[in-house]
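So, is this right?
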Amino acid sequence: MKKIKILVINPGSTSTKVAVFENRVSLIEKSINHSSQELSKFASLNEQYDFRKMIILQWLNESNIDVNQLDYIISRGGLIQPVTSGIYQINKKMIEDLKSSTLKHASNLGALIAHDIALQIGQKAYIADPVVVDEMEDIARISGHPNYERKSIFHALNHKAIARRHAEMMDTEYNKLRLIVAHLGGGISIGAHKYGRVIDVNQALDGEGPFSPERSGSLPVGDIIRDAFSNKYTQNDMLSNVVGNGGMKAYLGTNDGKEVANRITEGDNHALEIIKAMAYQVSKLIGEMATVLKGKVDAILLTGGMARDEVITNEIIARTNFIAPVHMYPGEDEMLALAENIFLMHNGKLGVKEYI
């Protein structure tokens, strides 16, 4: 079987990650950090396009990677229109939507850069499982007021990759399993996976659900409304309290899990209480997702950076292992997940979808 070379691009808010894979094996990869001073030169996210593209091309040149030898190019997907899970070829419609998106994130630049590089070498470019993957059942969209529909925005790439990896480990197929996947990172998303579809999940972008290292989670809505009209806070203040300066950061002054773990080791009981409360809220939402699946759950999968923290995971396991066996998949290897999508596509196990 011919080995394929895959260029993977993953822009983040303060970094650009790039890698070249041969099948599922990383040949070379780099996380290029961008200082606030570098990024402050740009008035908008879209203005960073040339800067980010130049950095990627420079890295390829310095790494002696011949772009003409690449078989595929794939990028992390941005905030496009809601789509079902899968691999999408980057097309004109997707590019237009990314450029005009009112939701801003550095991942929006990835598909633009991947498409441009692919055009130069006569190849096609792709994205896979962007955060806007939407497979929710209609009943899950109902929030409690018709003005506010629940939306599906979550860590779809890692959810799907880990679910498929678990199925492979169990010598079965993802679309034959009923799973609860909990991604524990800077944001937390917990989804009910029913036979290959995420039929319910919390909206992780705004922090619905459990609080996380920097998101406040589902807060008492009455108190939020009263604060919003108290003249003590601006709109930006309120948004920052919910995303960026909420959660663990608000309680403990940091969003660094390692720092908090060290404080707990040194006997900081307040830090321990907050971490246990976060695990408690995660466990509650896992319990909710078990009801979505009507109690028929094959496994609970814990993934993301915080899945390395034994204080958190032990607490979650103790509260949820009566539902189903709990399996650990720590970390969030998005680069590998993207390469795996291309590998599966190349071998006919995943089809390419059209973005319309």
Notes: The first strand starts at residue 5 and ends at 11. Residues 269-292 form the longest helix (24 residues).
